[in-house]
Amino acid sequence: MSNGQATLTRDAKEPRIPERSEIEERHKWDLAALYANWTQWEADLNELGRQVDCYASLQGTLARGPESLLAAMKLADDVGVRSYKVWYYASLSYDQDQRDNAVNGRRQQVQILLARWQQASSWFNPELLAIPLEMIRQWMDQNSDLALYRFAFEDLYRQQEHVLDQKGERLLALSERFNSAPTDAFSALSTADVKFPTITLSTGPVPLSYGQYRAILATNRNQADRAEAFRAFHEVYRANINTYAALYNGVMQRDWFHAQAREFKTTLDAALHGNNIPPLVVENLIETTKTGAEPLRRYHRLRKRVLGLESYHSYDGLVPLVEFDRKYAYADILDWIVGSVAPLGPEYQSKLSEAFRLRWIDVYENVGKRSGAYSAPVYGAHPYVLMNYNDTLDAVFTVAHELGHSMHTVLAHSHQPFIYAGYTIFVAEVPSTLNEALFLDYMLARATDERERIVLLQHSIDDILGTFYTQVLFAEYELQAHRLVEQGKPVTSEALGELYLGVLKAYHGDALDYDEMSPITWARIPHFFQTPYYVYQYATCYASTAQLMHELRSGSESVRQSAVDRYLTLLKSGGSDYPMTLLRRAGIDLRQPDPVRAVVEQLDQRVLQLEAEIATLSTQRSQRFAESAEDS
Ligand SMILES: [Zn+2]
User: Fold this and answer.
1) Topology adopted by domain 325-443
2) How far is the CA of 421 from the centre of ligand 1 (A)?
3) CA distances from 527 to 58, 418, 522 (A)
4) pLDDT given for residue 482 in this prediction
């Protein structure tokens, strides 16, 4: 996830977007590490097709013994490794310029082949699960190569506990066809069919859109303008609030149907089962965060004071506290980013610097290029990072963030066999947020201008609010809303509004003035409709990072070194065990309050620093004022 900063609509003064051919080679990623050309790619694609057919022919052989099972596992690994390279060569090429139809065609060729692989391998799980687990365990004891797959086998049998008989699975499969209806209807209502009005601000009329709304909240220093944008934006949702409530009820009833059908006690249990996460993790996350809401409130009170506002609303949370417009040239930040990860050791640093030297990164925007940023984990090569670098502070932090993902990929891929090389979202955002935290420390220590320090601190605090507090607030709302459904209580727009306002107040208390629209703001959060019980994982990752950073920053040399070792082991472990187990080995127990407390403490520190910087700035201002008064 990129951090939740506002993306501004393109300013008319900005230079035109260049063609890809105008970008210097050193600022483009080098795909030659995958294939020299499309001819080589095509040869590998054909080989992949042959392997897929070969795999299909193994059906019916597993029960013959450990060697047969091992042969199927190894062939599946080969298919996996090859499909990474074949897929990413086409997909990364496509993202360079999405107008290229020939490349898009090749990308679709891979998609079709991967769909064929799905079908060609669908016999495997039922055939394996027909063999008793005890037998598989005996085979693993006999055959050490097969024992490599122990965790994968054990997990498959564990997941099987909630799989129904053939008739039950068929019914559930049939229901898939309308499962997405409430989510699709939400998207249509809030995107395709949405009509935003033109609003009148102090500067004149402005046609409202999602981008425009974010831009007004993030840049417009006139509170009345922000209030008007907020009101008009949410009026669009209020006009359909009963429809939004009915759709959300549909989402939750679907979740509850599936949970009950698979014999889970609650929707939360069902959602957490895949990664084997105990529900206590989510409950503890919510409870501990709520008791740590005071620094959040202090930050908003500070903003209210600095911005000179009489009342403070949810639309006042984004405007920068000071005007500071430093540009960060890409050439300048490379040494900083490498320097910032020094606490993780010289080996980590030197590996990370390869990203710049060996052209893992596609730096600048060009016509047709995919927007946003990502790190692509290409097994058998190295990660590739897509950026749209634009010299802003956000862009610098995005480079640090994506390279955190890349280093996770590098360490996991070089220490794990293919089957465990991937990692789950439950740990994925730990290295990315940890790299960002290290980078912030590095920048704060070097910033000579107090306004730059204020901008850095606000960036860090906004990040804690967006990646942690807001996600926990969302998690609590969806948990409570699902509980209404589980308890057979009515789910109306009023009930949902009351619930949401209650949750908002539990976190923000009297630091926020609530508006007529506050209770309905839940209706514009796509995540509630699209990915229930998902984003809490950003918060748990953030808490894990905070605890690690606490040890990296403050401990004695031995505490620090032990934290670094445990952290690097976590990255090297990839997906070789359940995320809770891997994190516990790294010293992080998410069932305990400590990781969340580390976030609260970090926010408390940042707000303290910000209060101090602002006090210094205003003293200087009044001194300057006094001096100029003496001069005259
Ligand atoms: Zn990320």
Assistant:
1) Collagenase (Catalytic Domain) (3.40.390)
2) 17
3) 41, 31, 10
4) 98
Q: 399 phi and psi, to 5 degrees?
A: -60, -45
Contact indicator for 212, 199 with CB cutoff of 8 Å: no
Q: How far apart, in Å, do the first and last CA atoms of the chain sit?
A: 54
Superfamily of domain 264-322+449-618: Oligoendopeptidase f, C-terminal domain (1.10.1370.20)
Helix axes 294-306, 493-508, angle to 10 degrees: 80
How far, in Å, from the CA of 398 to the mean position of ligand 1?
A: 9
The position carrying tokens 């046609």 is: 207
**Whether the Cβ atoms of residue 250 and residue 481 lie closer than 8 Å to each other:** no
Q: How far apart are CA 343 and CA 570, in angstroms?
A: 16
The CA-atom distances, in angstroms, between 216 and each of 201, 313, 512 are: 10, 14, 19
pLDDT digit string, tens, across residues 450-467: 999 999 999 999 999 999
Task: Note whether 583 and 570 are within 8 A (CB).
Answer: yes
Torsions phi, psi of 9, nearest 5? -70, 150
- Does 625 score more than 70 pLDDT? no
Which residues on adjacent β-strands are paired with residue 207? 198
Q: Which amino acid is at 21?
A: S
Backbone angles phi, psi at 364, to 5 degrees: -100, 160
Q: pTM above 0.85?
A: yes
Question: Is residue 325 helix, strand or coil?
Answer: coil
Cα 475 to ligand 1 centre (Å): 19
Active-site hit among 228, 402, 478, 551: 402
Backbone angles phi, psi at 41, to 5 degrees: -60, -45
- What secondary structure letter does DSSP report for 132? -
CA of 464 to the centre of ligand 1 (A): 14
Q: Can 42 be counted among the known catalytic residues? A: no
pLDDT at 620: 81
Superfamily of 20-163 according to CATH: Oligopeptidase f, N-terminal domain (1.20.140.70)
DSSP strands (E only) in 413-526:
none
